Amino acid sequence: MLRFTDEHEWVKLEGDIATVGITSHAAGQLGDLVFVELPKVGVALKKGAPAAVVESVKAASDVYAPLAGEVTEINAAAEANPALVGEDPQGAGWLYKLRLANVADLGHLLDEAAYAALIG
Questions:
Q1: CATH number of the domain within which 23 lies
Q2: 64 partner at 20 to 30 Å CA-CA among 27, 49, 98, 113?
Q3: What are the C-alpha distances in Å from 15 to residues 23, 75, 107, 117?
Q4: In 3D, which of 68, 70, 64 has the Cα closest to residue 99?
């Protein structure tokens, strides 16, 4: 089950580990990605704090931490090949994994229907 933020990040929970990326909508708005900067493994992120940067030929955008937690893994393939994030943002183009400080906080994010309504 995917959850979403109003800043266009998606979250997929497996146990207490959340995989985080940008939505297909965000990737489409950005266009061709040319640079991805991911957080360092082991760093503690606060909800809403900048966690990563994605840069396209159009603009650079911060990717915010959807929930608080510690980064456990990054997608080195996405950093090496930023186009992967644009081509498959909600699959192979995931950005990082986060061990959640509080799994219950996931309930505060948008479900698929609410996100679809947001992007209209």
A1: 2.40.50.100
A2: 113
A3: 21, 19, 14, 28
A4: 70
Structural domain span for residue 33:
2-119
pLDDT at position 5? 97
Query: What is the domain count for the chain?
Result: 1
For the chain, where are the alpha helices, taking DSSP H only? 24-30, 76-80, 83-87, 112-119
The string of DSSP codes covering 34-65 is EEEE-PPTT-EE-TTSEEEEEEESS-EEEEE-
List the chain residues with pLDDT less than 70.
none
- pTM above threshold 0.85: yes
**pLDDT score, position 14:** 95
Residue 33, strand partner residues: 56
- Could you tell me which residues are beta bridge partners of residue 71? 98
Instruction: Tell me how far apart the alpha carbons of residues 99 and 114 are, in angstroms, rounded to a whole number.
Output: 25
Question: What is the per-residue pLDDT for 58?
Answer: 87
Four-CA torsion 64, 86, 27, 25, nearest 10 degrees:
-120
Q: What is the pLDDT of residue 1?
A: 83
